[in-house]
Amino acid sequence: MPAIQNIKVAVDAVVFGYTSKEGLSVLLIKRDVKPFRDEWALPGGLVGDDESLEDAIQRELKEETGIGINYLEQLYSFGQPGRDPRNRVISITYYGLVKPDAFELQANTDANDVAWYNIKKVPQLAFDHQQIIVVARERLKNKILYQPVGFELLEEKFPFSELEKLYMAVLDRPIDRRNFKKKVLKFGFLEETTEKQLLDGAGRPGNLFRFNEQKYFQLKKEGISFEI
Amino acid sequence: MPAIQNIKVAVDAVVFGYTSKEGLSVLLIKRDVKPFRDEWALPGGLVGDDESLEDAIQRELKEETGIGINYLEQLYSFGQPGRDPRNRVISITYYGLVKPDAFELQANTDANDVAWYNIKKVPQLAFDHQQIIVVARERLKNKILYQPVGFELLEEKFPFSELEKLYMAVLDRPIDRRNFKKKVLKFGFLEETTEKQLLDGAGRPGNLFRFNEQKYFQLKKEGISFEI
DNA sequence: CCAAAAGTGTTTAATATACACCCATGG
DNA sequence: CCATGGGTGTATATTAAACACTTTTGG
Predict the structure, then answer these.
(1) Is the distance from CB of A79 to CB of A120 less than 8 angstroms?
(2) Alpha-carbon torsion, ordered B191, B192, B196, B202, to 10 deg
(3) What is the rounded CA–CA span in Å between residue A96 and residue A153?
(4) Which spans in B36-125 are helix H?
(5) Nudix hydrolase domain: which residues (chains A, B) (predicted)?
(6) Closest approach of A213 to chain B, Cα-based (Å)
(7) Are strands B8-19 and B89-98 parallel, antiparallel or unpaired?
(8) What is the pLDDT of residues A24-55, one digit of tens each?
(9) pLDDT tens-digit profile of A92-148?
(10) CA torsion angle for A203, A204, A208, A209 (degrees, to 10)?
(11) What is the domain partition of chain A in residue ranges?
(12) Most exposed among A124, A142, B24, B48, judged by the fewest C-beta atoms under 10 Å?
């Protein structure tokens, strides 16, 4: 055990967003500081001495991207020596989910650009951030099978097909429409409204659904078994 | 973001062991240093500047308990300011599984005693270690439902009832013997030997089983769906 | 012969899977 | 009237769940 220790502690976040147009996307910043200046990276930064980890990541997200987050959960801690070329830095990572109406971004501290990238089109990233995204995506894929997911990613009201496309994007495979609907509705965390979808093209407009928040969060606690 | 940061990084481990006599148990040390001197705590300590997190926790386990570990996985990072009364310390926690034949312990550095405690009889602990054990136990409970568990906790050969009791101890509820056996054997990661259990009392001796390591680790990667 | 623990199978209920045609809208 | 996307049900296969008596051993 070392007499003195010289390790820095950072937090970084993989924030997922979803729109049917863009698919499953990740929030990235373009770094305005060394190292890896002008390269894309996950939003994040060093933790303050008297700041909780959650406060730190929320602060960094606000500073660097202007985003308000709907859901945030700890992902994993990366601490391999050498992952930061300057000093030893341990990064405690989080993953978050945001609704599309929170998509307006603004670059600030430490970042000269902010953007959403489709999960399949992520550019080369600074540090080990590529690997962190892989872990986050894997976690989300698993999460979706034992907890309801969607409330944190979709607008208040949405056509059922929107939820279906979200699940296909996360799981990265096709889903049978009829079986999916049967299964999801049986859980009872969705309410059907009488409103109809506004179309931007041809097709029969579907009814809009919304989450019953009480049931949704109850099932989130209890867990579900969701074998799609 | 702070100009300079003064946070320490530690690793701590919740090591689980299982014997049919003692049930599911956790490895604890009695602290030989301040703060919380002479109180029970999880094994762990500060990370060296050039040491990976995994190396650090393995080193601490060896130093403090003399134990060799079969399986170790990152659990969660605890970083609430004030969780250590002296300085800000962030603890990256791991949970581990060990076989009974590695149960011989020896206290060393920073510890003046080491002991196994049944999961239901854990004494009061230093820091937030009680909470860490709760999280670890919850994780193990979940893990057992989507990955085979047991190879890391049981001896090379064991009667089937041993696995069944292990699952009951982890899940903390009764299991139907016939359905459990049917289900487990169908996965195919167990091999039945012709050897019979040595008894320490009355009862019909059962055949001994052993894990087929190849299948076991394959299923560990693929994941299983284990609704007991 | 009694107590303790292991071995074993069937029936029923629930769930998962596979699968195709019609409907409402915009252009 | 064509293209697009939404809506809906049934039959079959698989899996889960409930459940009790017999066998082998030690004392």
Answers:
(1) no
(2) 100
(3) 10
(4) 53-65
(5) 6-140
(6) 25
(7) parallel
(8) 999 999 999 989 999 999 999 999 999 999 99
(9) 999 999 998 777 777 676 678 999 999 999 999 999 999 999 999 999 999 998 999
(10) -90
(11) 7-143, 158-222
(12) A124
What residue type is A175 in one-letter code? I
**What's the mean per-residue pLDDT of chain A?**
93
Answer whether A109's CB lies under 8 Å from B1's CB: yes
CA angle A221, A224, A228 (to 5 degrees): 150
The answer to whether strand D lies under 7 Å from the CB of residue A198 is no
A7-143 matches A158-222 in fold: no
B203 and chain A in contact, CB less than 8 A: no
- A105: which 2 tokens? 């971004």
A214-228, B80-94, B97-111, B173-187: which range is least confident on average?
B97-111
Partners of A207 in the β-ladder = A196
- Chain centroid to CA A105: 15
Name the closest residue on chain B to residue A60, using Cα atoms.
B1
- Give φ, ψ of B103 to 5 degrees: -80, -10
**Residues in CB range of A170: below 8 A, 6 or more apart:** A24, A140, A141, A144, A149
Q: Which protein residue has its CA closest to C1' of C3?
A: B202
Are the beta carbons of A140 and A53 closer than 8 angstroms? no
d(CA B184, CA A175): 29
The residue lying closest to nucleotide C4, measuring its CA against C1', is B203
User: Amino acid identity, residue A5?
Assistant: Q
Contact assessment for residue A228 and residue A171, using Cβ atoms and an 8 Å cutoff:
yes
Instruction: For residue A40, give how far its alpha carbon lies from the nearest alpha carbon of chain B (Å).
Output: 20
Q: Which CATH class is domain A7-143?
A: alpha beta
Residue B126: strand, helix, or coil: coil
Give the helix, strand, coil percentages of chain A, each rounded to 5. 30, 30, 40
Contact B45/A at CB under 8 A: yes
In the sheet that holds A207-211, the strands lie side by side as A158-159, A207-211, A190-196
Residue linked to tokens 């993989």: A14
What distance, in Å, lies between the first and last C-alpha atoms of chain A?
48
Q: Which CATH number fits domain B158-222: 1.10.10.10, 3.10.150.10, 1.10.760.10, 3.40.50.10320?
A: 1.10.10.10
Q: Does the CB of B80 have a partner CB in chain A at under 8 Å? A: yes
DSSP H/E element including B187: helix B177-187
Q: What's this model's pTM, rounded to 2 decimal places?
A: 0.94
